[in-house]
Design goal:
The chain is an alpha/beta fold and about 220 residues long. The protein is about 35% helix and about 20% strand. The protein binds adenosine-5'-triphosphate (ATP). Pfam families: ABC_tran.
Amino acid sequence: MLELRSVTAGYDRAAPVMRGVDLTIAAGASVGLLGPSGCGKSTLARVAALLHRPDAGQVVIDGQPARGWRHRAPREQRTAFGVVFQQPRLSADPRLTLTDLIAEPLRAVGRAPEAAAVVPALAARVGLGKDLIGRRPHEVSDGQLQRACLARALVLRPRWLICDEMTAMLDASTTASLVHVVEEYRAEHGAGLLAVGHDRVLLERWCDGTTHWDDLTGGL
Ligand SMILES: Nc1ncnc2c1ncn2[C@@H]1O[C@H](COP(=O)(O)OP(=O)(O)OP(=O)(O)O)[C@@H](O)[C@H]1O
């Protein structure tokens, strides 16, 4: 279970983006979070993935309270999450080939030697052929780069996926393909999902349930 308990967070303690927010996702379940632009969905997603330290409240991962944030989070908690953001170019090192980009988390945890066995199959799974995986970000489309970012999020086999507007800048067929990859992974590994977005139709089709920002925050 992934729990946000009474989370207050933002960028200015005097004026937080959210106050006292509770959100629970059962193990293996998926929740879609809807809300208007700028309300705080990405901030909440980053708190849930241990990437943004809340001012107050707790994040509890499978019964264990988060013991740190960002690089200070213990490795077993940090690697429980795979995160995909809206803009792949902001989260991709332009110097890396797609192969190296997908392998980045393995290198970060000292498991680089596994990359040769794991990355080609994962790249194929997200729809990246051999012709593409040797290219660098500026040599591929946004959709192709987002496919690599999804593969990177899956490479450590996380128990939780946080998809923050993952498909917002993609066409319908790439969107369908990436959602399919996420659902196939979740079916195989029992991973839970928080999918953030503003496309109600997509999130209602994709997730077990959806919640609106106003319901989390009481419209405050
Ligand atoms: N790094 C930051 N420093 C200061 N304020 C920020 C920062 N990031 C976001 N904000 C502000 O926090 C509020 C919530 O932003 P957030 O990105 O969480 O919203 P969102 O619901 O995800 O929006 P969108 O749907 O447009 O992506 C906004 O008012 C935004 O301007």
